């Protein structure tokens, strides 16, 4: 009993001592078990506290019953009560609410709660996890209001990024800034996705702080940065995959082809060419051209920092071979990045960013009539790939050649070395003022080499560069002498330098608990200097790519050789100011004014002013607002003006580059004439934008954002074809640019995010975005009914237009109403259709005059638009006890596509739907007869227009992260293995290779000439961190 009393007395003394002088030691970790340096630990109700060290450790004097609050940016704050423990481990959970997320806006940052404009953000992890070949492809379906269409799925191909629709038939590319340095759309893909911290998209008038370049929206990319007081950490990511064609066209096989060709010849009154049609399957040209190809990427990042310095260093390699073209179609990219931030003196910080990339691209002819895939579709299945030791010729057609022979004779290579840098100095003058000055540059050196060997694809082929099968050179007449023109090589070296200098002052002050004022004022200078040399040399020795160099030319006297060069400069000088006022954290208003002076425009309109006003109201903070379901609700509105100066340089000047002939003393003398009149009143395109937005949060887990916008673009930059007296262009010159034409985009954007973390350990997140868009031309240049666009087929009807009352690039042609079944039906019809025969397409008399007018445009009508009505993206992710699953689905609905890859020639192969052609009365009312005779079935009509709507599983991924108990023993913080698939399947009714059909020219969008499709990719990878 005495011993027990003594023990209790000892314990009581210890508790009394702890109550007076106790302390607690602990470690703060994230959900993955990694230490969080710099986390704050504060005793509630006091000013006593501390922060964690590099290993997340802390020690703090406490008393039993004290409450400690643990917090860190981006994580949910935790509060706990100290009992008798002396050691504790705290795991912070990432915030699910997005209200406190930091959004990068023009020349500053803001939380989502503070925003008054329409801004969307995607984190770098969401981009890198997609494992897409290009950064622009990884953005597809991730952000509302952002439409991305693919120009080509080939290695090193490009996409179109459109923010809130097409505003012009000129340059619709958004302004892209990477760490404050201007990039072009192609340069965006030079970035390593693993280097991205965040991508922020400014969609409304608040982008007007960038003035004359903001009309098409602004994309701000921030690369990764290190953290102060952070031990060096290494991250490595790697994947390897195989690619294949997701789908192939349903074409005729050899037997079907022979039967249908014979039928067409017989119907046209000609002798059928095939005596025997029992030819089996024949050559499947798609199987010969498409192949399985590898894709891989390997990346490493090192992050760390000391008390005054932080750094992030990254490097990577990406390689992709094409599913068409073998080693003649591939892309490689090497990346390196350094992001270094240091406090060089109290309150003075220096940020240095260096990006380097080296790219090599090999390409094949693609995306047009005469491309490899166009020839693949139309090549005869009755012809073999080879005949003896040569390629087959595919005779009887001039513009269809053997695609395998075409690939073998293609040598197109380009190398791009890109160096980007930024130096930024920031000084905190006091608690309210700070000043920033930065200088950036973006330099690219581009080398191109294209070798064209002597090639013979068959008699009469347009693509032939040799006289005959023996590859004898073509003879050309030079000054009355016949000279052989042999193999040639084109070489070019171009350099592109953009540079900018900016300085701006920031002000932020709260005068009391109710009033807060923020402001930004600054100046900006942008310039570029581009130059290049190029040359073409003929008669390369031995017809061999190994000798493909201009210096190796053996052309007699150099008569055939050609050279060229260019040089250009541009300048943009700007000043801007932004003022913001916030009252009670509930009401906010912001105003922006930017003044730009651009060298692209005439002296009468060189200076432009671009104002914007916006405001916000947090309704949920009002006393009258009471809702258990809605935690946050904010109303936003903005209106402003921005511009677009993206045209060629000095278009306002008159040029003396026209060719003319004059008579002097009865002799005709060649000379120059005014080819382009000057236009000193030329100015930028102006875009007026109105946006009304609503943000709210439900049950703390659901974030909802909605925007309604009107985007009105005026004074479009345009080159009209006018009379010679007013500025017509002659040989060697171009028409003047004028400002004419208006376009309006209206739409609705929705973004919904739901995230939850269950006690069971299941974490679930879903993100959904939706965009509705209506595009209309509201004005065309005076004196014009429309501007013509793309042609159908080879020299066929103009199929697209820019015309008032319709979307940009809408499809126009004849509307059909089934098939003529009998001659009696034709004879008794109240509408006369010239040259109609039973089995032909039956056209609609649009103008009601009783005649189908093929000679004019009176019966042409709207057939569809390449612009989707709806864009949707769905992103799902779930993880449980180390296992994770994610999926990304993208859908575009309501657009049409022109099927322009079918060559309308008797011997060209055909789509398999022709098996169900009209062969007699009642056999079909959809597919016309086949004939070599005269018919109107090949004129452009809705028969060649298809619904282009589609939904695609862009990415699906399953992964497993090894438990800490396994990896920690070998010094690895985390290790994850995964398998994934890109473009696993596509739901669509479109018959072509890929319904995601884009074009850099808005008037050519949706016209499918045999697009190089995006590949299906199956891959496996790993990520680990030390």
UniProtKB/TrEMBL annotation:
Cellular-component GO terms for this entry: cell outer membrane
Signal sequence extent: 1-19
Bilayer topology: Multi-pass membrane protein
Organism domain of life: Bacteria
Domain TonB-dependent receptor-like beta-barrel: 424-889
Compartments where found: Cell outer membrane
GO terms under biological process: siderophore transmembrane transport
PROSITE patterns: TONB_DEPENDENT_REC_3 (PS52016)
InterPro entries tied to this protein: Beta-barrel_TonB (IPR000531), Beta-barrel_TonB_sf (IPR036942), CarboxyPept-like_regulatory (IPR008969), Plug_dom (IPR012910), Plug_dom_sf (IPR037066), TonB-dep_OMP_SusC/RagA (IPR023996), TonB-dep_OMP_SusC/RagA_CS (IPR023997), TonB-dep_rcpt-like (IPR039426)
One GO MF term attached to the UniProt entry: siderophore uptake transmembrane transporter activity
Membership in a protein family: Belongs to the TonB-dependent receptor family.
NCBIfam families per the UniProt record, alphabetical: OMP_RagA_SusC (TIGR04056), SusC_RagA_signa (TIGR04057)
PANTHER family reported in the protein's UniProt record: HEMOGLOBIN AND HEMOGLOBIN-HAPTOGLOBIN-BINDING PROTEIN 1-RELATED, TONB-DEPENDENT OUTER MEMBRANE RECEPTOR
Record-given protein name: SusC/RagA family TonB-linked outer membrane protein
Taxonomic classification: Bacteria, Pseudomonadati, Bacteroidota, Cytophagia, Cytophagales
């Amino acid at each position: 009993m005495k011993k027990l009393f003594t023990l209790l007395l000892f314990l009581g003394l210890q508790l009394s001592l702890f109550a007076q002088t106790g302390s607690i030691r602990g470690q703060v970790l994230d959900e993955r078990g990694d230490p969080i340096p710099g986390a704050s630990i504060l005793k509630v109700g006091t000013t006593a506290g501390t922060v964690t060290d590099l290993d997340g450790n802390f020690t703090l004097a406490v008393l039993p019953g004290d409450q400690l609050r643990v917090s860190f940016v981006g994580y949910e704050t935790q509060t706990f009560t100290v009992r008798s423990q002396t050691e504790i481990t705290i795991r912070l959970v990432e915030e699910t609410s997005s209200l406190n997320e930091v959004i990068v806006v023009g020349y500053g940052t803001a939380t989502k709660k503070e925003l008054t404009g329409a801004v969307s953000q995607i984190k770098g992890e969401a981009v890198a996890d997609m494992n897409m070949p290009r950064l622009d492809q990884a953005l597809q379906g991730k952000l509302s209001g952002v439409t991305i269409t693919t120009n080509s799925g080939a290695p090193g191909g490009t996409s179109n990024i459109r923010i809130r629709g097409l505003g012009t038939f000129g340059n619709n590319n958004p302004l892209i800034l990477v760490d404050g340095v201007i990039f072009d759309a192609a340069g965006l893909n030079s970035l390593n996705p693993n280097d991205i911290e965040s991508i922020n998209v400014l969609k409304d008038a608040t982008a007007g702080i960038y003035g004359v370049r903001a009309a098409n929206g602004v994309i701000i990319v921030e690369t990764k940065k290190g953290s102060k007081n952070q031990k060096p950490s290494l991250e490595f990511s790697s994947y390897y995959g195989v690619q294949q064609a997701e789908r192939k066209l349903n074409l005729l096989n050899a037997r079907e082809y022979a039967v249908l060709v014979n039928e067409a010849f017989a119907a046209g009154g000609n002798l059928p060419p095939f005596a025997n049609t029992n030819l089996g399957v024949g050559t499947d040209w798609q199987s010969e051209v498409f192949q399985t190809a590898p894709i891989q990427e390997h990346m490493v990042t090192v992050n760390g920092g000391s008390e005054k310095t932080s750094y992030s260093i990254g490097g990577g390699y990406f390689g992709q071979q094409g599913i068409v073209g073998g080693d003649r179609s591939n892309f490689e990219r090497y990346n390196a990045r350094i992001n270094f931030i240091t406090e060089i003196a109290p309150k003075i910080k220096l940020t240095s960013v260096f990006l380097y990339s080296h790219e090599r691209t090999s390409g094949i002819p693609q995306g047009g009539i005469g491309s490899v895939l166009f020839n693949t579709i139309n090549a005869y299945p009755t012809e073999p790939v080879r005949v003896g030791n040569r390629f087959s010729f595919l005779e009887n057609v001039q513009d269809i050649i053997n695609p395998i022979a075409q690939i073998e004779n293609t040598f197109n290579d380009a190398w791009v070395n890109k160096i980007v840098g930024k130096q930024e100095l920031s000084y905190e003058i006091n608690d309210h003022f700070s000043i920033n000055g930065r200088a950036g540059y973006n330099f690219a050196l581009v080398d191109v080499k294209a070798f064209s060997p002597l090639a013979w694809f068959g008699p009469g082929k347009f693509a032939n560069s040799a006289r005959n099968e023996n590859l004898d050179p073509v003879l050309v007449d030079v000054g009355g002498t016949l000279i052989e023109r042999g193999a040639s090589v084109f070489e070019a070296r171009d350099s592109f330098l953009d540079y900018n200098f900016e300085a701006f002052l920031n002000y932020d002050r709260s005068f009391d608990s109710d009033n807060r004022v923020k402001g930004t004022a600054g100046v900006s200078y942008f310039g570029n200097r581009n130059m290049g040399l190029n040359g073409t040399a003929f008669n390369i020795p031995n017809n061999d790519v190994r000798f493909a160099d201009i210096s190796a030319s053996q052309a007699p006297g150099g008569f055939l050789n050609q050279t060229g060069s260019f040089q250009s400069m541009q300048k943009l000088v700007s000043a801007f100011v932004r003022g913001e006022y916030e009252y009670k954290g509930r009401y906010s208003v912001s105003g922006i004014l930017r003044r730009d002076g651009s060298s692209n425009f005439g002296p009468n309109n060189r200076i432009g002013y671009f104002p914007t006003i916006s405001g916000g109201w947090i309704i949920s903070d009002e006393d009258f607002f009471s809702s258990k379901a809605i935690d946050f609700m904010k109303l936003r509105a903005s209106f402003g003006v921005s511009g677009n100066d993206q045209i060629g340089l000095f278009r306002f000047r008159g040029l003396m580059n026209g060719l003319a002939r004059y008579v002097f003393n009865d002799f005709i003398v060649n000379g120059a004439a005014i080819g382009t009149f000057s236009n000193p009143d030329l100015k930028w395109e102006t875009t007026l934008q109105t946006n009304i937005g609503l943000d709210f949060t439900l049950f703390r887990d659901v974030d909802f954002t909605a925007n309604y916008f009107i985007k009105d673009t005026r004074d479009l930059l345009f080159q009209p074809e006018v009379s010679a007296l007013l500025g017509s262009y002659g040989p060697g010159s171009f028409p003047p640019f004028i400002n004419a034409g208006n376009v309006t985009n209206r739409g609705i954007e929705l973004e919904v995010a739901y995230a939850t973390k269950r006690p069971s350990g299941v974490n679930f997140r879903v993100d959904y975005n939706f965009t509705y868009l209506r595009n209309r031309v509201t004005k065309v240049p005076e004196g014009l009914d429309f501007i013509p666009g793309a042609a159908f087929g080879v020299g066929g009807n103009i199929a697209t237009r820019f015309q008032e009352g319709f979307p940009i690039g809408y499809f126009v042609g004849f509307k059909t109403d089934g098939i003529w079944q009998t001659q009696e039906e034709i004879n008794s019809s109240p509408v006369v259709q010239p040259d109609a025969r039973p089995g032909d397409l039956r056209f609609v008399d649009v103008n009601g005059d009783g005649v189908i007018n093929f000679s004019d445009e009176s019966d042409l009508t709207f057939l569809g638009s390449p612009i989707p009505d709806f864009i949707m993206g769905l992103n799902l992710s779930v993880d449980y006890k180390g296992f994770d699953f994610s999926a990304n689905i993208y859908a575009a609905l309501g657009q049409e596509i022109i099927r322009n890859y079918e060559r309308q020639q008797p011997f060209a192969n055909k789509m398999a739907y022709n098996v169900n052609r009209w062969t007699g009365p009642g056999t079909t009312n959809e597919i016309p007869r086949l004939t070599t005779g005269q018919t109107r079935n090949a004129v452009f009509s809705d028969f060649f227009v298809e619904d282009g709507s589609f939904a695609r599983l862009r990415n699906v991924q399953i992964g497993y992260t090894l438990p800490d108990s396994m990896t920690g023993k070998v010094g690895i913080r985390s290790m994850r293995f995964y398998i994934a698939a890109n473009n696993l399947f596509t739901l669509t009714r479109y018959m072509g290779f890929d319904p995601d059909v884009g074009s850099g020219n808005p008037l050519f969008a949706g016209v499918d000439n045999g697009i190089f499709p995006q590949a299906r990719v199956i891959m496996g990878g790993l990520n680990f961190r030390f």
